[in-house]
Structure formats: C-alpha cells, structure tokens
C-alpha cells in the first residue's frame, strides 16, 4: 500500500470538530484500503456505484454503515435497499417513493438526505431550492413511512474561489434552517448537513456542515 490511509484518516479526523462526522468516500478503492480505515475505527463509508458497493458490502465487516452518495437510478434501489444505511443523494420525489417501496419490502426504514443543486455547474445533480420547496409543500412525502428524511446534501462548485464556495455552503445552511422550521420542526432526525469534500471540507465545517464526505485526502487519487 503506497498510500498511508491510517495517517491520512487520523489527520482528517483531527481537523473535525466533535459534532461533525466523517463519511470516508471509498469508491474505486480496493477493500484493503477500507479495511485499514476500518481497523482505525472508521465505520461510515460512502460509495457511488451499486455493483461495487454490493461487492464490498458482501466481503467487508457487517457493522459498516454504508452511505450511497452517487446519483441513484430508481431501478437500482432494490439492490441496495436490504442493507444501505443512508441514501444521500435523493433528487426527485420519484426516487424517494421507490426507496420507500423497497424499504417496506425489506421491513426497513431507510434514512435519506435531499440533494440540493446550488453550484453553478450544469453537470451537478440535485433539486433546485424551488423544486425542493415545492416537493415538500405538496406533502405527499409525509405518507412515506419507510423513509426518514434526515437532512440535506450538496456539492459546492469545483473552484479555487473560496468566497464562492463559502457563499454556496451558506445558501445551503439558510435553506436548511428555512425548511427545518417549515416542515421538520417536530423531526429531531432532520439535522444533517452533508457538505464538504477533500478540497473544501475545512471550509464546510465553518459553514454549517455536520457531515463531510472525504475521499482523495484519505485514500489518494482514484484509479478509474
Ligand atoms: C467522490 C465524491 C466525494 C469525495 O470526493 P473527494 O474529492 O475525493 O474527497 C464526495 N461527495 C460525492 C458526492 C462524491 O461523488
């Protein structure tokens, strides 16, 4: 192993305030890297491809909490529903409904985050703030008893312009506060703000993040 996963992991953990949790983003990395992080105490891992996740879930320890962080097609939900701990990137009501259906089939309640599209890049998935508001105002989601909406997720623009990144995190935090009051005032589980990746997690923790998703800084560059 030419990447010192243990050292990198502890460095990142050392930068996080106690109340911020780390999702170690392990996509495209081999099991041995995850095992090293696991042996150092890391339990939350994030993956973005259903087949790769299935292979890792089968072979790695069962007390790992797997987060699905990528764009999830509705026809793939059934494969991860038996074991997924949190689906972070819910970007449509259709997907939310399918997760609810598959969770029910498995006798489970699956935690999800709603993914916001705030960054200026067109390639990013996610709900615009207006779409997210509309979806919540319609209220149909309240009948979905097998999903638990635990907060929001977003990616800031991939830029070196720190003020833009800060602005986007702040937009997401104000939006969180707005919908918390309007729709989730009685839902203590609605508390997560998943923002911050390798290049911007230190900014994110100063701008409202409760959960950072860090890959490259821990595991090194991904080999596709
Ligand atoms: C890959 C990925 C990450 C991790 O990115 P790094 O730059 O490697 O830290 C975080 N969030 C999402 C949604 C990702 O797809």
TrEMBL record:
<comment type="similarity">
    <text>Belongs to the pyridoxal phosphate-binding protein YggS/PROSC family.</text>
</comment>
<dbReference type="Pfam" id="PF01168">
    <property type="entry name" value="Ala_racemase_N"/>
</dbReference>
<feature type="domain" description="Alanine racemase N-terminal">
    <location>
        <begin position="6"/>
        <end position="221"/>
    </location>
</feature>
<dbReference type="InterPro" id="IPR029066">
    <property type="entry name" value="PLP-binding_barrel"/>
</dbReference>
<protein>
    <recommendedName>
        <fullName>Pyridoxal phosphate homeostasis protein</fullName>
    </recommendedName>
</protein>
<keyword id="KW-0663">Pyridoxal phosphate</keyword>
<dbReference type="InterPro" id="IPR001608">
    <property type="entry name" value="Ala_racemase_N"/>
</dbReference>
<feature type="modified residue" description="N6-(pyridoxal phosphate)lysine">
    <location>
        <position position="27"/>
    </location>
</feature>
<dbReference type="InterPro" id="IPR011078">
    <property type="entry name" value="PyrdxlP_homeostasis"/>
</dbReference>
<comment type="function">
    <text>Pyridoxal 5'-phosphate (PLP)-binding protein, which is involved in PLP homeostasis.</text>
</comment>
